[in-house]
Design goal:
Elements lengths: L7 E3 L31 H4 L5 E3 L22 H6 L37 H14 L4 H4 L11 H20 L15 H12 L3 H13 L9 H16 L10 H11 L5 H4 L20 H61 L16
Antiparallel strand pairs: 1-2
Helix pairs in contact: 5-6, 7-8
């Protein structure tokens, strides 16, 4: 094995052409063991010289240091789905949690109250409030708390978002309902407690809302636009329970609209309502949705009301004309009677007795 940077001599035994000693030029013979004499022609009997070789060492390349591990920013949802990567001992440059509460809104018009049975509408409004403040993940799931040593900013943002979501829930809950959210360390725990209490009452509330919807009926003379608005509000309440119920679709609501109107509207609504809820019809009139059907019914109602006003006005004008003609005829008859009586009275007034000086008779009748 060659050692780098050291010259190693290669030793070879000298060889000669003949083993027997040869006489020298001067006639003498060298004793055994004496080095051979140098020949006149060195190329003939020159011994093999010692050969050396030099091994050149390869340049030493220093090892490449590993690239520093940079903090990769991830979203809050990615942090929940995928485990957090192993980071270096340095502080993360980008926080793993983004600070929420940008809108600054913490109050809605509706307050959660068990007496109002408003969990569904209240929870929908609260989800909108959480969304505009970027704290939905802290309510619907348990976001892990980041390491305050390697991610101090992310840990601070986690505390702020959790507290902001708790304030939103507390500000929109009735005092009687806060007993379920007291001493909860996280907003997720508060939301879970409220949902576990009110979610069990959904079925009873659903049946009550469905019954109220079917009881809304219009009769002849009802204000149809107000009736449809009331029907739509009740349907929206019921739709919150049936987001994943295919039977409670738009076609079913169209049937409810049609059956809630008086029988005089059947001829108008039948072309727009499907015979079966699950039947596919190519008729374009049956493809209108519930909102379009409500608009068509309102438009038809306005036309009917306008036509009734015109008919009432024409009838009133006709009655007025008839009454004026009758008055004129009666006045003419009265005038004739008056003129006849006046003529008779005038005739009677002309009689005068010249004998006694009295009226109403003549002298011959005196």
């Amino acid at each position: 094995m060659d050692i780098v940077g050291i010259k190693h001599p290669v030793v070879q035994q000298p060889t000669y052409q003949d083993t027997d000693p040869e006489p020298r030029e001067d006639g003498l013979i060298d004793p055994p063991g004496s080095p051979p004499p140098t020949p006149a022609n060195p190329s003939l009997r020159a011994p093999i010289q010692l050969a050396t070789r030099t091994v050149t060492a390869a340049p030493i390349i220093p090892p490449v240091p590993p690239a520093p591990q940079m903090a990769v920013p991830v979203t809050q949802i990615q942090q929940q789905v995928y485990p957090a990567p192993v980071v270096s001992q340095a502080v993360m440059a980008v926080p793993s949690i983004v600070k929420g509460g940008g809108s600054g809104i913490t109050k809605i018009k509706e307050t959660l109250d068990n007496k109002k049975n408003n969990w569904l509408t209240w929870s929908e409004s609260m989800m909108t409030l959480f969304d505009i403040n970027d704290v939905v993940e802290f309510v619907v799931s348990a976001v892990p708390f980041p390491d305050s040593v390697y991610d101090p900013i992310g840990a601070k943002n986690w505390c702020f978002n959790n507290s902001f979501a708790k304030i939103c829930i507390d500000n929109n809950t009735a005092p009687t309902e806060k007993v379920y959210t007291q001493s909860c360390p996280t907003a997720h725990k508060m939301w879970t407690n409220l949902r576990s209490i009110y979610k069990s009452e959904d079925y009873m509330v659903y049946m009550d809302q469905l019954k109220s919807l079917l009881e809304i009926q219009a009769v002849e003379g009802t204000n149809i636009p107000k009736h449809l608005a009331r029907l739509k509000r009740q349907w929206d309440k019921l739709a919150l329970f049936s987001k994943h119920n295919k039977l409670m679709g738009d076609a079913f609501f169209k049937c409810i609209i049609a059956q809630s109107l008086p029988r005089s509207w059947n001829a108008f609504t039948n072309p727009y309502v499907q015979g079966h809820v699950d039947k596919t019809d190519k008729d374009p009139n049956k493809r209108v949705n519930s909102q379009q059907l409500i608009g068509l019914i309102k438009q038809e109602y306005k036309m009917i009301k306008s036509q009734k006003k015109r008919d009432a006005k024409a009838q009133k004008q006709s009655e007025k004309n008839n009454s004026s003609l009758a008055n004129r005829l009666s006045e003419s008859s009265n005038n004739k009677k008056a003129s006849t009586s006046n003529g008779f009275s005038n005739l009677c007034a002309k009689k005068h007795c010249k004998h006694c000086g009295q009226d109403n008779h003549y002298k011959l009748e005196c």
